[in-house]
């Protein structure tokens, strides 16, 4: 059984990780442990590079806390231009898989708060009155009327990030012609 360490304690992220590992390896093939680690980036990362760095730093932190695990998974949400998105980083002892989630355009009223230094989750709480909305459906759930959620969008990206761990083409050495 794989020991998967999620570099988060956020239930929406942990559920997405569990769904992706279940899709790829089966329900009985893993157990997930969430750990609280620092991203090494601001609480509201801005731009793709800063957000990807946050996900990679989370994996590094998780590896330090649980070096005996089989997989370490970092998920970092960020803002780029007027969009929210997230980077997924998955590592085992031999390789890394990465993917970027779909993006959601944010309304101007939310972007104004973010541009003044606020986090998306805090702005969404102000807008909706829902406490800890980022630990639930998130902005994605709110703005898609629940058709998509933070979990469902992250799940898709995590399945993509898992491709190198089960598809033999990723393990094949490059052929010279």
What are the key terms here?
177 residues, alpha/beta, 6-stranded mixed β-sheet, 43% helix, globular, nucleotide metabolism, hydrolase
Could you walk me through the main structural features you see in this protein, from its secondary elements to its overall organization?
Mg(2+) binds at residues 38, 68. It is an enzyme of class 3 (hydrolase). Its cofactor is Mn(2+); Mg(2+). With 177 residues, the protein is of the alpha/beta class. Helix content is 43%, strand content 20%. The chain is built from eight helices and six strands, in the order E-H-E-H-E-E-E-E-H-H-H-H-H-H. It has helices at residues 11-25, 48-65, 108-115, 120-128, 138-143, 150-161, 163-166, 168-171; strands at 2-6, 30-34, 71-80, 83-91, 96-100, 104-105. Strands 1, 2, 3, 4, 5 and 6 form a six-stranded mixed β-sheet that branches. Strand 1 (2-6), helix 1 (11-25) and strand 2 form a beta-alpha-beta unit. The chain is globular, with a radius of gyration of 16 Å.
């Amino acid at each position: 059984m794989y020991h998967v360490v999620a570099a988060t304690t956020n239930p929406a992220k942990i559920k997405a990780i569990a769904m992706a590992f279940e899709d790829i390896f089966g329900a009985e093939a893993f157990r997930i442990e969430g750990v609280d680690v620092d991203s090494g980036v601001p609480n509201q990362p801005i731009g793709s590079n800063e957000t990807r760095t946050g996900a990679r730093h989370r994996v590094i932190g998780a590896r330090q806390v649980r070096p005996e695990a089989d997989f370490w998974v970092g998920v970092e949400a960020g803002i780029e231009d007027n969009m929210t998105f997230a980077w997924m980083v998955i590592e085992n002892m031999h390789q890394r898989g990465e993917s970027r989630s779909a993006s959601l355009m944010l309304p101007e009223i939310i972007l104004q708060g973010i541009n003044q230094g606020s986090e998306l989750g805090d702005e969404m709480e102000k807008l909706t009155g829902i406490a800890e909305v980022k630990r639930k459906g998130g902005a994605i759930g709110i703005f898609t009327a629940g058709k998509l959620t933070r979990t469902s969008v992250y799940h898709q990206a995590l399945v993509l990030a898992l491709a190198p761990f089960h598809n033999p083409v990723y393990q094949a050495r490059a052929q010279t012609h």
